[in-house]
């Protein structure tokens, strides 16, 4: 199994998958993100055969969301910037593993987008369940239909049939 930590979450993927923390790539941090203010990245890229998974993780169990941008809009921006970086990364990444991974992404036959969204299980005035996952999923579907007509918004206890698991650190 492949375990990757994103903040306080541990993502566990089958051994047959290729997975990386894209937002930690040297190419993204040192080159691509420097092109313009506001360039963002999804947390994880995963390859399952010819299916490319772009995964963004948000954990609001300890700290509520404070950004003013709509969550679905933020995810869409990250997806678009990440996809835009793949061809330049394949050609110009100085790290050969990043270049090779980008090349594998470009060979993909299907794109899938997943927002992993953790919120407080028990709501309170201090930590309300402020984000309706179904509304975020509906907005994502309308915004990124040409990329993935069926994006998912999941949490660790409702993975909607995905082939990986997520646990808390």
Output the keywords.
169 residues, alpha/beta
Notes on the structure:
- It is a single chain.
- The protein is built from 4 helices and 8 strands.
- Helices cover 29% and strands 26% of the residues.
- It has helices spanning 26-30, 71-92, 96-106, 133-143; strands at residues 2-6, 9-13, 18-21, 44-48, 51-59, 110-118, 152-154, 165-168.
- The chain is globular, with a radius of gyration of 16 Å.
- By secondary structure, the chain is an alpha/beta fold.
- The protein has a 5-stranded mixed beta sheet with strand order 3-4-5-6-7.
Summed up, the helix count is 4
Tell me, briefly, the overall form: globular
Q: Bin the helical content.
A: 25-40%
Major sheet: size, sense and barrel closure? 5 strands, mixed
Structural category is alpha/beta
Radius of gyration, whole Å: 16 Å
Q: Which whole number gives the mean pLDDT?
A: 93
pLDDT under 50 segments (min length 5)? none
Cα end-to-end separation: 16 Å
Tell me the total number of β-strands: 8
Order of helices and strands: EEEHEEHHEHEE
Strand % is: 25-35%
Give the spatial strand order of the biggest sheet: 3-4-5-6-7
């Amino acid at each position: 199994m492949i375990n990757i930590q994103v903040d306080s979450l541990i993502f566990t993927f089958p051994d047959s998958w290729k997975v990386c923390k894209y937002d930690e790539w040297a190419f993204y941090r040192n080159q691509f993100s420097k092109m313009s203010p506001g360039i963002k990245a999804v947390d994880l890229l995963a390859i399952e055969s010819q299916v490319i998974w772009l995964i963004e993780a948000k954990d609001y169990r300890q700290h509520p969301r404070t950004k003013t941008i709509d969550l679905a809009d933020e995810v869409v921006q990250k997806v678009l910037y990440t996809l835009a970086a793949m061809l330049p990364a394949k050609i110009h990444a100085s790290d050969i593993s990043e270049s090779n991974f980008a090349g594998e992404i470009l060979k993909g036959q299907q794109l899938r987008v997943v927002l992993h969204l953790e919120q407080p299980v028990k709501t309170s005035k201090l930590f309300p369940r402020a984000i309706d996952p179904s509304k975020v999923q509906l907005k994502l579907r309308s915004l990124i239909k040409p990329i993935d007509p069926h994006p998912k918004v999941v949490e660790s206890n409702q993975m909607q049939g995905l082939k990986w698991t997520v646990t808390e650190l």
